Amino acid sequence: MNRLSWINWLFALLVISKTALALETPHIGHFDRRVRHINFNPQQVVKLVGHYGFATDIAFASGEAIKQIAMGDSAAWSVTPVDNHIFIKPKAQQAITNMTVLTNRHVYQFELNASQLKNTNQATSRNMMFTVDFIYPDDLKNQLHQHNQQQLLDDELNRHTTPQVNNQNYFYKGDKALLPVTVFDDGRFTYLKFNQKQDLPAVYTVNSDNSESLVNSHINPDFPDTIVIRRVVRRLVLRQGQLVLCLFNQSFDSEQSESYQKTQIPKVKRIAKRREVKHD
Fold this sequence. Notes:
mainly beta
């Protein structure tokens, strides 16, 4: 069962369970009746039945820290907290009492009862509780909501978007064999679209001292014949073997650049992250 299926299954479970808030005993598990679960409800007292000679593991949320445990009769039960778990086991003959557990997130109320097995063959009794796992409806709702929001964002990011033409005022000089079918920019990136039969050339930008540098570029899988230059520049040089072609942006000085933070996806903002350099 993958994570989303698990979340949906638990979410469906909590919806069903909300109609039976009067039921305080943890629910029997699907695979083993001794493994129980129950939805957390701050207004509900959870009834636990322990058995002499057997321990019960109460599991809270991952990362939840146990701060305090208060027992009505501390001598009647053995109580051992470990991380987000509490292991309890009845000791006294009259082991009916209550227990309050305070964590960094919640307050839990328990009614503890004890029972004696007539023989060891009854260890599979439906009344046995080896493990009691708490399920948190609000957390599951948030997880499901976050997953759905992330899925919507992923769908937007993966959806191909046609770039908007901001400037097509380019001219060329050089070998026409390297000439793109279309050249334009959207104020942020420059797009060089080639014929499917053309081999894509290497692309360089011309620096202020007339030297050349490779530009950062990528090819969008949705537009396999288009080189996307991650800048808008005055001049580009295309090279392939002995062939050379120059592209000149005639509107470079007058063109207003788009903000780097702008994207073509609504509600998505591009953030430039600085890389920290550590010195020894």
